[in-house]
Amino acid sequence: MGENLVRNGGFEADWWEESSHRCVIFHTDGRVEETERENIFTPPGWTIWFRHGLPVEHDPNNPVGWAQPEVREAWITGDPVRVHSGQKALLFFTFFRIHDGGLFQQVAVEPGTRLRLTAWAHAWSNHDQGPHPDDPRWSEGEGVGYNHFYAVEGTPGLDSNAQNFTFWVGIDPTGGTDPYAETVVWGKGAHIYNAHRPVPPVEATARANRVTVFLRSRALWPFKHNDAYWDDVVLQAVAPAPWIRMTFEPSEPVVQEAVRVTVTSNVAYEDVGLQVTGPSGEVPVSSVEVGAPPDGHAWGWTFVPTETGTYHAVFTAGGDAQRPVEADVEVRLAGPVWGLPREQYARTYVLLPPGAGKEWVQAILDSGAWERYRWTIGGSADDAGIGALEDKTVIAVNPEAWSDDLEAFFRQYYPRTRYLPIRVATPEALRRRLEEM
Length: 437
What we know:
Blueprint (H helix, E strand, L loop, with lengths): L21 E6 L4 E5 L10 E6 L17 E6 L12 E7 L4 E10 L5 E13 L22 E4 L12 E8 L12 E2 L3 E4 L3 E2 L3 E4 L4 E10 L5 E13 L6 E6 L9 E7 L7 E6 L2 E3 L2 E3 L8 E7 L5 E9 L4 E10 L14 E6 L6 H9 L2 H5 L2 E3 L2 H5 L5 E7 L8 H8 L3 E6 L4 H9 L2
Parallel strand pairs: 1-3, 24-25, 24-26, 26-27
Antiparallel strand pairs: 1-2, 3-6, 4-5, 5-15, 6-14, 7-12, 7-13, 7-15, 8-11, 9-10, 9-14, 16-17, 17-21, 18-19, 18-22, 20-21, 22-23
Helix pairs in contact: 1-5
C-alpha cells in the first residue's frame, strides 16, 4: 500500500482554511444545483452532496422528502466515541428528516492505476418515540440498542429500524461528480451503529487522469437523530493481483495449420520460453511478436501440428525454473484431408529466387542432382515448406534476392523444415556447388 491520495481524509484540517459552505444538490426532478448553505461547513478538500425532494419511494407517506443535511466538525472533546483517530471526525446529520448524501473529492492519478478506498463510519439513529429518546448511546433496531452494531446490507433478519442507516464508499474511475452515475463503482453497504467500524472497501481502476471518491450515508426514516459520522478516509494505489493467460489461435486447430500460442500477464517475466509436446514427442516452436494488453505483457510462439491428438504447451520463465501457466489444445483433421503423404519420405526442394531464368534450372539438371536424388526444383517458398513430412530440406539459392527474411519465413510458418542457403553468382557456380553435394 502507498500513500493516502485523499486530501484531509481524517478531517483534521481547520475549516477556516477554505471557509467553505459549498454543496451540490441532486434534485429528484433531475436538476443539479451547485450552491452554498450556511449550516453546511464543508471540510477542506471536499464537497458536500445530497439528494433533495419528493417522492420517497420506500415511504410514500413522507410529506417532506429527501432533505438537506447539516454538516460540521465532531470534536473528540465533545464525545470521544464519535472520533476514530485524531482530534476530529465529520458529522453529517438530519433532524426529524431523512437524507441520502455525503461527500466527494476528485483526486489526480495516473490512468490505469488500481485504487482502493476505505473509510470508518457509524450512525446514531435515535427516535423520539423510542424506548430511550435522546440517549446518545442508543440507536433503534432489534439487536442494535446499546450495542456496537455492524451488519452488511442484505443481512437477513434485520428489522426496518436496524436498516435505517446504510454507509457506502464509491469510486468514479472517470472522474465524474455525479454519485448516481453508472460509472461509479460502489462497495457493499453496511449498517453501522454506535461505534466506528470500517465501511466495506471498494476497488477500481482509473480510466482518466483523475478519479472521484464518494462517501455516502442514507437514512430511511425521519427519526429525531439521524447522525452519520465519518473519519479516516484513505485512497491508495494497490498492486493488482497477478494474472496470466494462455490462448491458442485458432482455438480448434487442424493438422498442418500453424497454431499461435499467446501468453499474457501483468507480471514482467524474464528469460521466457515455450515447450510444446505432441502425441509423438516435442514439437518445434518459433517465437513471434504479439501485441501486449494495456495492463500487461505478452509473448508469442507458433508451432505446426503434424498429427491429430492432444498438444501440451508449457510457458516457462527464469530459465525453465518457473512454469507459470500450461494448457492443452486438441488438434483434429479438417474433414477429408487432401495432400497428406501416403507414407513418410525425405524431400529436398531446390528453391530458386525470384527472377531466376531457365539457365538456373538447367544448371541444376547439369549438376546431376536431379538424376541422383530426384530433388524438387521450384520457385515457391510455400511449396518448398508445405507438407506433413518429418524430413524436409530447402536449399535456398541466393536467399537475399527475396524481399523478406527467408530463413525467418520458414522458421515461422514451416518450423520443421531444414534450411540450407547457397550463395552463388552464376548458374555455372551453382552447377559446381551442387555437384559437390
